[in-house]
Amino acid sequence: MKFDTVTIKDIAKALNLSTSTVSRALRGSYEISPETKKLVLEYAEQINYRPNPIALSLKERRSRAIGVVVSEIANTYFSQAINGIESIAYNKGYHVIITQSHESQEREKVNVQHLVSRSVDGLLVSLSSETSDISFFKELHEKGLPIVFFDRIPDEIETHKVVANNYQGAFDATEHLIFQGFRNIAHITSSAFLSITKERLRGYKNALEKHGIPFNETLIKHCNHGGMIVEEVEEAVNVLQKGENKPDAIFCAGDRITMVCFGIIKELKLNKELGFTGFTNTNLAHLFSPTLTAVRQPAFEIGQVAIEHLIQIIESKRPITKFETKMLDTDLVVRESSINVNKEKIKAKL
Amino acid sequence: MKFDTVTIKDIAKALNLSTSTVSRALRGSYEISPETKKLVLEYAEQINYRPNPIALSLKERRSRAIGVVVSEIANTYFSQAINGIESIAYNKGYHVIITQSHESQEREKVNVQHLVSRSVDGLLVSLSSETSDISFFKELHEKGLPIVFFDRIPDEIETHKVVANNYQGAFDATEHLIFQGFRNIAHITSSAFLSITKERLRGYKNALEKHGIPFNETLIKHCNHGGMIVEEVEEAVNVLQKGENKPDAIFCAGDRITMVCFGIIKELKLNKELGFTGFTNTNLAHLFSPTLTAVRQPAFEIGQVAIEHLIQIIESKRPITKFETKMLDTDLVVRESSINVNKEKIKAKL
DNA sequence: CTGAAAGCGCTAACAC
DNA sequence: GTGTTAGCGCTTTCAG
Known about the structure:
Shape of chain A: elongated
CATH architecture of the largest domain in chain A: 3-Layer(aba) Sandwich
Structural class of chain A: alpha/beta
Helix content of chain A: 40-55%
Oligomer: homodimer
């Protein structure tokens, strides 16, 4: 250590002991006499000894660090989830290494490889919107690397997963719009193969079905970059607006798409005529104009549950074979943007 | 490597070479014959060999990783800065390890210690709002650890620093409010000892002075937790509102304080009577009601400049003694919140 | 041009 | 109860 030159060797030398004795004393091994222990511990304290985690990692193939892979930290959902992750990890003595895929499959892979080669003890992953091929994760997982997926999860890997109830969230949002009297509800969402996309679409469809509204494929728009590319969303809105089946409301999936789309609608001054809601975890929804009706996920808790499960796998003595998918409830917060100001509210029954 | 068992030793064995030869071949040492090199390289490629960065770090006391310490990633300023950092680091082959202090000095210290013990090659630091004692960083820096400070920088350490022109940003914002006819301008800001606080306060004062408005201490409110604690900001607004010297405008420093304060004002329905502006890098300012006049920092660029300087220090052959503080311009984006709707605009000359 | 050996900091058999 | 030694994966003298 360039900046922390104290090693176990220095202690050994100073105290006229062997490095192994010191090592054992430091970790409180039962074989060491209380006096020696005391001696070593006090001296270590005094010279401010810190074990070198790199040497430890090399030796033990573990690092007490866990790796997190998300698409981008600027997304409030993810920064909240990361805070949840940290809140637990910190207390259990794990360090958290955060990486961003920026919705790129390649970047995601590079990050994971780096994390693995750094001997992280486990991985917390939310897939990038580009990631269709998950064989890479599968291999890692089969080799025994503890992985917990959250938010955007793969079907094909058997491990713990933690998600919001995306189905219900989408169902609630859509039904709310229906209750408001909207009938032509567009849905702008992410890549078709993402788990969250499928679930939300299912919720949307079921709500329509429940209320006897025929599903119309042309009202579904996919932004494959999850809103990272503004033009994709603009295009979606434009096509919808110009189509013969012009929507009277829009329901967006995903933080980024929701925000971008909301901005576009506002730009086009379509607020008055268009009901709007979407998934977002922003804390600023009440400051908008109109204030934004939003489906909110318990991101912090999702992060917490995910890391708890991960640590459980990491610290489990025997290999885990029974995995569960934990689902947490979403919360529809109704504000102005989804209120139907034009039409009279149509009574729909629950 | 549990998940990547291929080591240099395996290659050596398979090719009937010594590990040192393989090592040298892999790194293209001039001493190795072209044939051997080719042999090794191709085989390595074939079995997908990846050097173990942990072993490397242990040996070389460097990691090709740099550590970042910010108060919280949920702050748009920081997530933008981090994206700037990553954009450069990634291309230069460095990995970025992000940590959050959550405005706690202790947490900041723990994070830095961890990063250092992981042999990061350098540190990019924006101080927590609690951090008054920087002797810890000073020691590290004196021992030779490359550190670049950005945003919240310490006076007492001689190294590269990168900041926005906080003075000018505050000056512009304040003067803008003055041009709008506001005279009793409150300033809600962070801990008094933070560099950004001082600079912004200076800008605020100078703008007042320039326009012959007397400075009034009671209009300055410090939120020592940088807006992390909502009550602090509420308290500040309340005291201002109830004071004998009620402000006609508020200028906030810092992303978090600005947002929280804006929310409070809106809650209290003070929007109409109170001019408002503040430092924030949110991309959503135009969606608010009223739309938010903001001082925006070039966060992405600040991150880029910071990492460039850091890498320059890291890779410099001789110790650097000449350090500079780079200052980037802020941008005042005028929207509705700062427009004086009650009083007639008073002509003030530039 | 290539190999043997030491060592980075630490742990864990295996002695004694 | 404590010391000796080997080894984690890699680089780097030092020999040849």
